[in-house]
Amino acid sequence: MRLNVGLVGYKFMGKAHSNAYARLGMFFDPGAEICQRAICGRDEKWVAESAKKFGWETYETSWERLVERDDIDIIDITAPSNVHKEIAVAAAKNGKHIFCEKPLALTTDDARVMLEAAEKAGVKHQIGFNYRFAPAVVLAKKLIDEGKLGTIRHVRASYLQDFIIDPDFPLVWRLQRDICGSGALGDLGAHFIDLARYLCGDFKTVMGIQKTFITSRPLVQKMEGLSAQADANAPRGTVDVDDGTVFIAEFENGALGVFEATRFAQGHKNDLSIEVNGDKGSIKFVFERMNELQYFSADDEPGTQGFRLIQATEGIHPYMTAWWPAGHVIGYEHTFVHEIYEFVRAIVNDTPTVPSFYDGVKCCQIIEAVELSAQRRAAVDVNEI
Length: 385
Ligand code: SOE
Hints:
This protein is of the alpha/beta class. The protein has two domains: 2-129, NAD(P)-binding Rossmann-like Domain (Rossmann fold, 3-Layer(aba) Sandwich); 132-331 and 363-376, Dihydrodipicolinate Reductase, domain 2 (2-Layer Sandwich). 33% of the residues lie in helices and 26% in strands. The strands form four sheets. Strands 18-17-16-15-7-14-13-8-19 form a nine-stranded mixed beta sheet. The chain has a six-stranded parallel beta sheet with strand order 3-2-1-4-5-6, sandwiched between helices. Strands 9-12 form a two-stranded antiparallel sheet. The longest helix has 20 residues, at 357-376. The two termini are 41 Å apart. It binds alpha-L-sorbopyranose.
């Protein structure tokens, strides 16, 4: 079987996904030959250059043309959230399988439209919650599913970055609500909300506080990855998303959660961490040390109990037979290879995709509930959204 991919977007995520498609067949056997058929972006010079550099056979400057091409089986969307819905719905109508970056859409309603369109068309759909695919996180999930943590009581997670602390850092699209939907909460919090759902189940109620520390910023001149430049005298525009969000939550299973997302934590570059405490044990994962999982078992012998540090790099751990010998650590980009591997396998074997657009909808629902609770200054039931 051969699957032809059409990728929308050639920036940060576009590069991460291109790398994943390029590496997939070299390290894994997903049961299909993957062809990087076309990459799409508005700027012809950039998209042509990216096609050459990232290994795509052809390019398009219009996603409308891309989704109609007969030689494309998969549409992968890495453009900002404001265009996800339109592209995904059109892709579904054209019978393409869809992979889409997070957060799924600007609103939960839009995310639901995307889910419905994909289900109606009978195509596979997956969302890019890549941190689920760190081997140490899959191991944490396995330990929890096996009951090693017992009854889950607490979840605490944070995602801390520092790249917009300078008040003159430009007004990039990640700070404009009509393009990104939500700030630190949607961009960073989306990841730990998904990890918490993956590890501990559904959220019941949430209560949050949100803050925009810098309310106006110079208009952007140039942007590359997460860095951007602005002219010192450039006109300023309004920041209409949260710079930081904190919230507490109760899960359907009765566990309690504490969460924090910010881009104002000096010194923290990509500091995602999650800890789960049960009555029989605990796990702790810190992304910047992504090959390790900390695990405490109350079943260990008294006297030598303590958090053990598991190196999740041996072949016994998920995905690791495909890479290198034990101790030869893997990194950020590998999580994308793993998620694309699972997506392709689901297409080949006609099995459900995980995480799907359904998980994308659930995440949007929690984001919106936190925002509503911050406005109301009261707890909100997630099912109200
Ligand atoms: C920027 O904050 C960003 O690139 C997010 O958009 C990604 O989802 C996250 O994984 C890393 O940080």
